[in-house]
Amino acid sequence: MQLADFQGVHVYAIPMTARFRGIDVREGMVLQGPSGWGEFCPFDDYDDVVAATWMATAVESCFGTWPAPHRAEVEVNCIVPAVGPEVAAEYVRRAGCRTVKVKVAHESGIGADAERVSAVRDALGASGAIRVDANGAWDVDEAVANLRLLERAAGGLQYAEQPCATYEQLKELHTRTDVPLAADELIRRAVDPMRARARDVADVAIIKCTPLGGVERALAVAESTELPCVVSSALETSVGLAAGVRLAATLPSLDHACGLDTLALFVSDVVGDGSLRSERGVVAVPERAPSPDPALLHRYRADAPREWWWRERAERALALLEHG
């Protein structure tokens, strides 16, 4: 398969409302096939082998089908990046969600993290749930101390997402903290995600549809974890986010709000009508990925060098899928 097999190919570059995952502009590619639209948006530092799995999700959306859903809408969490307390509180008030995920382990230090979490609790109220995400940044001793501080600041944490990087660290941490733990990178970056053994070291599995190769593949990974699952975004536009929302709707049970409100981190979407932005903390489940707005594709079109870079990368990913 080549890009020429798609009916449409567009490369976008959309500024973000706050720096997130080290980037200020989100880039990617939306593609059109006979079944609809898909998205290819692996981060720049991912190699071609990893990128090919992200391409598999786009190919599924453009040429395949999705399983039937079990629910018509999905509850989502607001996400708060590494911003100051006042801005963090504004994210929470604007989103209207009952659950908030707060990014921590930022270079500003644990004190700033605790202030951010405390501001989120004040804005959310006593009944809402707070979860934190450290992206594997801490060793075990740091995690024990920092989670104790953050739990006090939050008045209780629903869970801590990937506080340590490795299986061995998470296993030890699980015996040294009462805070429930969630595994993200442990699953997503495993050589075989269906053999990640997350159940041994975590209480919740974070399942990201786009990096796992599509709805069908991610469903199999979710089942293999034998854990309650939270479906989370990989920072896509509505085109790619649709697969994640559909995955969340397809899981047999869904006990937690999902991390699918990430469009709030973009200054715009490539979709106008049909955008998957949340309303009052829920996202409607789409039948297919929504179609991009041509005017928005034009407004946020990447410059020529970056468009060429993305097209070459996509061709390599497609070749790996073809021969992989």
Q: Biggest sheet, strands in spatial order?
A: 5-6-7-8-9-10-11
Specify the structural class: alpha/beta
Low-confidence regions: none
What is the top-level CATH class of the largest domain? Alpha Beta
Shape annotation: globular
Mean pLDDT: 95
Give a short account of the largest sheet.
Answer: 7 strands, parallel
What is the helix/strand order? EEEHEEHEHEHEHEHEHHEHEHH
* CATH fold description of the largest domain: TIM Barrel
Q: Indicate the proportion of strand residues.
A: 15-25%
Report the total helices.
Answer: 11
CATH superfamily of the largest domain: Enolase-like C-terminal domain
Structure report:
This protein is of the alpha/beta class. It folds into 2 domains: 3-65 and 294-323, Enolase-like, domain 1; 73-284, Alpha-Beta Barrel (TIM Barrel). Helices cover 39% and strands 19% of the residues. It contains 11 helices and 12 strands. A 7-stranded parallel β-sheet has the order 5-6-7-8-9-10-11. Strands 1-2-3 form a 3-stranded antiparallel β-sheet, with helices on both faces. A two-stranded antiparallel ribbon has the order 4-12. β1 (8-20) and β2 (23-33) form a beta hairpin. α3 packs parallel to α4 and α8 (215-225) packs across α9. It is globular and about 55 Å long.
